[in-house]
Amino acid sequence: MKKLSTIILFAISVSLCYPNVVNAERAPSTSKGRGYYEERGEIVWEVPTHNKVIALTFDDGPDEQNTVQILDLLQQYNAKATFFVVGSRVEKHPEIVARELHEGHEIGNHSYSHPPFHNINVSKLTSELNRTQDAIFHATGIRTALFRPPGGSYNEAIVRTSKDFGMLTVLWSWHQDTLDWRKPGVNRIVKKVLDNAHNGDIVLMHDFVPSSTQTVEALKVILPELQRRGYEFVTVSELLSYHEKTRKFIEVNH
Ligand SMILES: [Zn+2]
Questions:
Q1: In this structure, what CATH number is given to the domain that contains residue 54?
Q2: I need a labelling partner for 193 at 20 to 30 A (CA). Which of 28, 182, 203, 234 fits?
């Protein structure tokens, strides 16, 4: 309780100082935007490195159709990925999340009910993170050190609260936002990833897009082509091991 009241007090003081909630895509240039958090190692968008590594990330799952097909494809290409799961869906399909971990992939927290995060209050935020950590723990026996806020929204309270849970906030490379949730067509998803692929990218995709198989179909092209170019597909934590500030965070919290 003391911790919660501390968080609330902190959030109030922060919100007085910094009334503008920062959105990852729309307002990167505010005084506490990307540069501030990236420098402090509190939010990660990508990990510049000389190594030919890329982190594929899948949000909003698990889904009994798409996630399973994605796992099969990843296995076929010996690729590792990170799944930012929604707690309420983890409770429906714990066996899929267990399979993700068992096959060497990483799990991240993506909230419990995927509410809008741009104006979320701290008590709701705390509950969303807590319930998802519990759901992941029940499914896998582990707690994750990675958090991705819905919509990529971030502010001081979100970053601090995820830190209080021992989680690092992870977003994605701006040039690797596939917008697959909008069902733009398989070719567009493929082109976005292949035309922009760089070492250390964090690619944003979704393994739960109702009545769409576009992400799965796109992966059938993306995986072999990037592999042909010499890329290795790694988890977010493995990617972070190339990055001094965030590596320390992960070492402490894993
Ligand atoms: Zn999401």
A1: 3.20.20.370
A2: 28
